[in-house]
Amino acid sequence: MRKRLLWLPVVLFGVQAAQAGPLVFVSPETRVSLVEVYSAAGCLSCAEIEQWLHSLVSKQDVWSRFAVVVYHAGHTEEAHRADPYALAVSVRRQNAYVEMWGAERPYTPCFVLNGLEDKTWFQYGAVRNRPGRPAGVLRMEVEDGRIRVVFRPKGAMPAGLDFRMVVLGMGLFSPNPKEVPEYNFAVLCEAAAPLAQLSGEYRVNMSFPAHPPYKEDSLAVAGWVSLPGELEPLQTAGGRLGKAPSP
Length: 247
Fold this sequence. Notes:
nine-stranded antiparallel β-sheet; alpha+beta; four-stranded mixed β-sheet; globular; single chain; 5 helices
């Protein structure tokens, strides 16, 4: 049974940016996979995961073939206090997966590939991403504190779809630099909205979510489209912001 989500209060991979005008992020027609990593302060393997994440920062296929988002989930009060990037939304989203999978309890580190639990990293030290199937083109434009989203699907879709986006922190401060020099792809905030269908396209124009005031080159965004209330992404786009828009 698929897990349906309640709306939360309100990535971009191919980037087309000019000196003036919006930042534009466009997916290919084939599906860009969404890799969700659930991490937590004090977990034994998370430091090794962070080293792998650091190696992805400069890799071009991160945004062209797959996007990575790291939810810091402090499932205990102690873990939440120890992790400056722990969010309640991270706990809720991982718990939704646990319920959908019929698992006993959440754990970290945990990898989710396109809505499915994935343990290949523990065997190969990498996520074994499969070639994407045709999904449609997802386009996001960020300008003047707004984000405009257009999704042109490949094939028939229901009348409405959901859009979810996260703002990611890159090269963030680590309270334990000996084990983890810095944090990357860390979810700082999340927003969601329904997409309205119009002439074969799905659109929404929404406010860019409020985010911590990190320096402009320390932010990225990731956004994905899914069936109403479901966790599995249909298409994903994302990339570095360079300069964060004003919330």
